[in-house]
Amino acid sequence: MNQAAPILETGSRDARLDQIVKLAVMAVGGQGGGVLNGWIVRLAERNGYVAQATSVAGVAQRTGATIYYVEMMPDTGKQPVFALAPAEGDVDILIAAEMMEAGRAIMRGFVTPDRTLLIASTHRALAVSEKIVPGSGIADAAEVRRAAEKAAKDFIAFDMDRMAEEAGTVISASLFGALAGSGALPFDVESYRETIRESGRGVEASLRAFEAAREAAEARRQETEPAEAPKPPEAKVAGPKALVGEWERLVARADALPGEEAQRLARAGLKKVVDYQDLAYGAAYMDRVEAAAARDARAGGAEQGHAFTANAAKYLANAMAYDDIIRVADLKTRAPRTARIDKEMRKGDEHLIRVTEYVHPGAAEFVSLMPAGLGRWVEARPKVWRGIDRLVNRGRRIRSDRVLGFLMFYTLGGLRRWRRRLLRHQVEEAHWTEWLEAAEARLPRDYALAVETLKARRLIKGYSDTHKRGLNKYDKVMSGIALVEGREDAADWANRLIQAALKDPEGKALEDALQTVRSFTTAGAA
Amino acid sequence: MAERSFKKEVEQLRIGAGETFRGEGILGITKALLENGVGYVGGYQGAPISHLMDVLADAEELMAELGIRFEANANEASAAAMLAASVHYPIRGAVTFKAPVGTNVASDALANLASGGVTGGALIIVGEDYGEGSSIMQERSHPYAMKSQIWLLDPRPNLPSITQAVRHGFELSEASNTPVMLMVRIRSCHVHGAFEAKDNVPPPLTVKEALSNPQRRTDRIVLPPYSYIHEQEKVNERLPNALAYIREHGLNEFFGPKHGKVGIAMQGGMYNGVVRALQRLGLADLHGESDIPLYVMNVGYPIVEDEFLEFCEGKESVLVVEEGAPDYIEQALRAALHKAGKPTQLMGKGPFPMAGELTGRVMFEGIEGFLREVAPEMLRAQNRAPNEPQEGQEIPDLSKTVPVRPPGFCTGCPERPIFAAMKLVEEEKGKHQISADIGCHLFSINAPFEIGGTTMGYGLGPASNGAFDGGGEKRPIAIVGDGGFWHNGLTSGIGNQVFNKSDGVTIVVDNYYSAATGGQDILSSRADNPTKDTQHPITKAVEGMGVKWVRQIDRTYDVNKMRDTLKEALETDTEGPKVIVASSECMLNRQRRERPLRAKAIKEGRRVERPKFGVDEDVCTGDHACMRLSGCPSLTLKMPDDPLRDDPIAHIDQSCVGCGNCGEVADAAVLCPSFYEARIVHNPGGLERWLDRMRKSVIGWFQSRRAAKRLVWEEPA
């Protein structure tokens, strides 16, 4: 049978197909991708285009990743056949309403070097899996940026979420602005504005965000990292003259340490411990850091960039400024905190702010506040302990904007004066002394391992049960480090143990890592 | 109150002949129902046809004017059963639900309906929840149509085709006395488009009128001996009648040249995808004019064999484009060719993968692969011998970088604290056997909660613990939502537990709505609904079923109470099932309801408090224990501006609605004292202002007293 005459010359595509603009929006459910989708359709229709939009509703909208898709072309009076979903390698404009969604679009093949303009907001909406890691589980946006630079034909990226927030609206407005500014659609800017105006809700704020993003996109801004505030200069100190003088002498000691990094960390550490306790405490801190620096120098620290001193300065400050009730109460009763809350709540003069603190101290916290002798006496008597626990252990909600509630915290904060005589302090001091000594003991034999030993301190954080768990992990890591001590790759293993401990709260990864360590360190003995 | 209101769009349903209708697929379907004299409509919500139910609910007034009855059915089975009205009466009826889960639930009624057959046109509009964005097991509705002999329409995904399918559906149903299923896929439900409208037509016989003049025909009832006769009737009368109607009215369509070496047969729903692939291959133009003969099967079942054989005439190879597994259509077409002894080669799964959605790439590669094998001369040189694109650099693999982002609880969701409490119980008493259910609460399966085992079907959470309900050292726990509870959980779950003296614990998650499907009202909804009777407490129903141990929790955010109640349920000596009804309003709906009211109140100068939570940066140690009991989108992380710290700390962003979960969890789990709740007071009274000033001056005095005696670092502004 005869083949009918072909519609198209063999080997050619219908050139009119190139007039179809294929645009996909990848968003996180709840970001308002639907609004943007609707705007784009109306914008197209306003400009004499036919457009078809689809979306996937349903549970994907509940904070999950979701895709909207639009195809459009000039209206010729005859309906073209549009696709209902984006195809890999066949997307002209991809709008990612979040940085990792840009990454997802690239992974799915929707961003290709031959045709795709990628408009991405660089802010991050963290996925649950990133948030629940005890250490830092945040995905690396720089990797996505590198991929985007290769995958996209044109790449526009800046923090459109912050822009929207500053304008008092949501990201759909700034995304729409970026689309306008990109010039990828042959529509004049006024028709975008008209589209926003027509929608009728929150028009002013939307237009503000729209213009800001449009200008940034027109300038082809590529702030591939979320805009970071410039590093603030180190805070200025104020206070009674005598104290300031003494403070400056301490700072001079910090500045006399070898190595810039060590100096920087020691200054920060000094500020932390002095703020935590007093200048005498700062002097004690400096004594200890200087002692560590001296040992560091003897162990050839100069070749190692004085890493031991720097880490000692960093982690000793954290150890000495341990988290106790006194510190919490002190921090919660300072004037700058009130100002910070006001700012965060966007308080105007016409508003008032009520602040409720959620605290839940138990017997452990209470007893640790006792003078060391009394505390030890109680600790030795479980019955007394349980009685105290029954008395104090419950969740308390305290209104710190009221005088009584405030005074409660204020009084607790005032216990600072006696802190060094309290049980908790003795426990902590013994602990960090032991830790520092263990690290210093390793210095002459294995510099890197000594540094890792210092870093293990990072595992101790949190309050009550979390703190206990942290201590437990720390102990396990320290015992693991003891096992590998003497090996060539000991520091490497120590680092692996620390990283494993930060992976999950139960310490499963750490247990596995320890198992491995045991398998090669004790195998011969067994 | 549904998540989305169609009040404005529904006005368009009134337009008549000569006007153009513009809108979403579901809206078009509703308009087509009105144009075709439907007498009653019903259904059960669920993606992708949730919005169809919302449209119908919003159009209730208009339908009442036309004498059309609308019923929001209890579940899909009752929706399908409602079509019984079309068995004896010449009244057109349509129901809608999500498929294939809805078809599963409805299968009893559907089978009975199909057996006796119908007099009035009966249309079952199924929203096929398949492929990307689907929330259910990946199956097809197709076999349901086949096994009960219900005709299955699968129109091309554009509004004119879909709305025409509604008309043909009714007519085909009446011509063959068989119910008809109209299948619409996720994206065609939400596709925007336009079609030429017609006038709305009131039903020739309304259900009200029918009530005054009851009719019955014994031979239409599924009872022996008639049921045996029905089976014969199906194949000897109804099927031939249907095939005749389909042929006569050209329900299946042909595009492109009549003859050719190769051809493509496809499900109607696949048409746009096929054309796009052909366009990309240079084999179809902008408007879908194709170089390859296309056979578009807008009727998925039954197959019109002779029509297909004619299409195959003279063709060496034909490709079948069929989405999902098993390949029912391909098998049927293969059998037809085989029976007719035709030499045409048939390909389908092969060029196409055995299972999975036919996305743009799969479609392109499938058709290209088919042509490369059977008609390479039709392909452009570059497609014939494809080279991997070498230009440019390799794009880095991001699969290890980009985190998965499954759906989860919204900001402020009242279900979050329920699962935080369950997690705390788990930490204390060990893991339990937990069966989950369908609904928002199913998100507890994912991180951070990772609670709940199976999900066996909507409302079947309690029933799926049946094997464990005899008791043991630890009690099994079942979860069911209020939607699932009323869908069938009350009888299949609770009633059954009472009857079998179950020892298990059931948590009914009551968020005042059928929330996962878009916030539709149900029996226990707290809202006043002008057309529905609401505010029927779940506890009363449970007690009525005979449960002795029932606890009502009116604020799920009270994590301590939630935890203690669950512990009590696991420990109590009371025999029989233990039921906890945990109630708090869906935050999405609550915000939608309250936000405008709040804005209005603030504007009018009334006193309003708005809560938001915060984290004291210096107090937070960055261990993220709070995250592991939350997963709230507004509770996130940020890097502190402190060189001494290694790990990011908790941070609450502006989207926080102040639900209280953070503080409650910190308290119940004894986490840390970094959370605070700040309430901003709009329009405070004079006395309140004065009191605040007094407090501020006292507090300020103390603050400066202490600050004066120590060093203070002035943070640069």
TrEMBL record, chain A:
Domain Pyruvate/ketoisovalerate oxidoreductase catalytic: 29-215
Domain of life: Bacteria
Stored SUPFAM superfamilies: Pyruvate-ferredoxin oxidoreductase, PFOR, domain III
Keywords associated with the record: Oxidoreductase
Pfam families: DUF6537, POR
GO molecular function: oxidoreductase activity, acting on the aldehyde or oxo group of donors
Domain named DUF6537: residues: 263-478
Region (Disordered): 215-237
Basic and acidic residues biased stretches: 215-224
Matching NCBIfam families: PRK08312.1 (NF006179)
PANTHER family assigned: INDOLEPYRUVATE OXIDOREDUCTASE SUBUNIT IORB
Protein name: Uncharacterized protein
From TrEMBL, chain B:
GO terms for biological process, alphabetical: small molecule metabolic process
Coiled-coil annotated residue ranges, if any: none
Record InterPro entries: 4Fe4S_Fe-S-bd, HACL1-like, THDP-binding, TPP_enzyme_TPP-bd
Top-level taxonomic group: Bacteria
GO molecular function annotation: catalytic activity; metal ion binding; thiamine pyrophosphate binding
Keyword Calcium: no
Entry keyword set: Metal-binding, Pyruvate
4Fe-4S ferredoxin-type domain: residues covered: 611-642
Protein name: Indolepyruvate ferredoxin oxidoreductase
